[in-house]
Design brief:
Layout: H1 6-18, E1 42-43, E2 47-56, E3 71-79, E4 84-91, E5 95-98, E6 101-109, E7 124-131
Antiparallel strand pairs: 1-2, 2-3, 3-4, 5-6, 6-7
């Protein structure tokens, strides 16, 4: 028997809604620990928690933009059982040096669509830690 937490069900449902009703969420990028919702902590060696979407100026998927735009996520990085905590604003593929490695935000769902506002609870994030903690 498999048990689900309320948060895991909410994330699964949010992921399905992101895909227009499809029942699966795309696989998370290689090297990540899977998709995370805002406020959800994952242990990569350092613990990583996306806290807030600071900016989402990505170009909508079906629009021809002169500039790609960016997404910036306030991210909490915790080491040593909470003895070291740092909040950083990360953009896609930006690396932050942490201990003996680096943390990067590698993907964000959903893609932006013209004329549609993304609610905070719809976002999913994938991070990667490169290092040897």
């Amino acid at each position: 028997m498999q048990f689900y937490t309320r948060k895991s069900v909410a994330v699964s449902l949010a992921g399905a809604a992101l895909l227009g009703g499809c029942s699966t969420v795309p696989l998370a990028p290689a090297g990540s620990n899977g998709w995370q919702a805002l406020g959800e902590m994952r242990d990569y060696g350092p613990q990583i928690t996306p806290l807030e979407v600071i900016e989402d100026s990505r170009c909508p998927a079906t629009t021809d933009c002169g500039q790609a735009g960016t997404i910036k996520i306030l991210t909490r990085i915790t080491l040593f059982g909470g003895d070291w905590v740092r909040d950083e604003v990360l953009a896609i593929d930006q690396h932050i040096e942490v201990a003996d490695g680096s943390v990067a935000l590698v993907a964000v769902l959903p893609v932006r669509k013209s004329g549609r506002v993304i609610a905070p609870g719809e976002y999913l994030f994938a991070y990667r830690f490169d290092g040897g903690l």
